[in-house]
TrEMBL record:
Protein's recorded name: ABC transporter related
Domain ABC transporter: 2-255
SMART domains referenced in this protein's UniProt entry, alphabetically: AAA
Nucleotide-binding keyword on record: yes
Record keyword Nucleotide-binding present: yes
Family annotation (PROSITE patterns): ABC_TRANSPORTER_2
Amino acid sequence: MIILKNINKTFRIAKRKSGFGQAFKALFSREYETVHALSDVSFTINDGEMIGYIGPNGAGKSTTLKIMCGVLTPDNGSCKIDGRTPWQDRIEHTKNIGVVFGQRSQLWWDVPVCDSFELIRDIYKVNKTEYRHNLDELVELLDLSELLKTPTRSLSLGQRMRCELAASLLHSPQTLFLDEPTIGLDAVSKIAVRQFIKKLNTERGTTVILTTHDMQDIEALTERILLIGKGRILLDGSLLELKKHFSTRKTVVFEYNGEVSKLCDGMTVTEQKEGRLIIELDPLICSVSTAIAHLSSQVEVLDISVSGISAEEMVAVLYKEYRI
Ligand SMILES: Nc1ncnc2c1ncn2[C@@H]1O[C@H](COP(=O)(O)OP(=O)(O)OP(=O)(O)O)[C@@H](O)[C@H]1O
């Protein structure tokens, strides 16, 4: 279980004006400014949950993750992960977590992937049987057999990300922190990585904390989202409930034969051509079933699809609403 209570973190940054004269002056007297990266951040995550931790650039996501991993110490507040304080019980804590930072690598650049894995086994002191079992499973699930003998520097981004995921899981951690795990991946690799994370959560019960700007990751993986903006937690809720709350309209696409002569109140046409009609519905005025009945009475309906707000649209609304 992860419990964060009133975590604050500030960074002190040296201010420097441009120009050689100012650079020289800064050698003798420096001015500093304080950045409040996290302000009173509190939340609880239960074992086996998969959380989407979202917010705009600079909101404080990576800082929170680094505190939870024990890399950064907060100014004050408490963080307990399975009863341990990450920055105080670092060795014991590290044995129980896996971390993937999409922009950084934990693999040794010039050595074959399998050698990096062996080094990780040594660092984490994973016993041979457990290592063999985990490696076999990960090689199969992530399709790594062709990659093990390749040096990391020769891997494509998607191949490296699959190896990074495997590296973070060789010691069977109970909690996995993922910071933008699908950044820069092509569509096929993204789907493979998402499927793997989902499987890990359902089959091994691994707790997953995922930060991403890719709302398709959120849509595919998480049921609960935590929204952070300007260092403060602004919202903590179920993705489905949020979507329902923000879904003030529905989009219905009709494929049909014939002539649509009239629409009813609450329907707005966004596109109409060659037997295809896309309408936006205001559900308070016109329900989906009313719209279907109304159009079916005029034309032969061949196909219908209904969609609500996407996670992407919802997050755009949220960011606007909270002015972050
Ligand atoms: N080491 C550091 N030194 C100084 N300021 C920092 C440091 N790390 C983070 N910050 C500042 O803290 C704030 C939060 O940064 P953080 O990296 O946590 O944001 P983020 O939500 O992960 O952003 P992104 O989505 O762009 O990765 C930012 O204003 C950032 O400039």
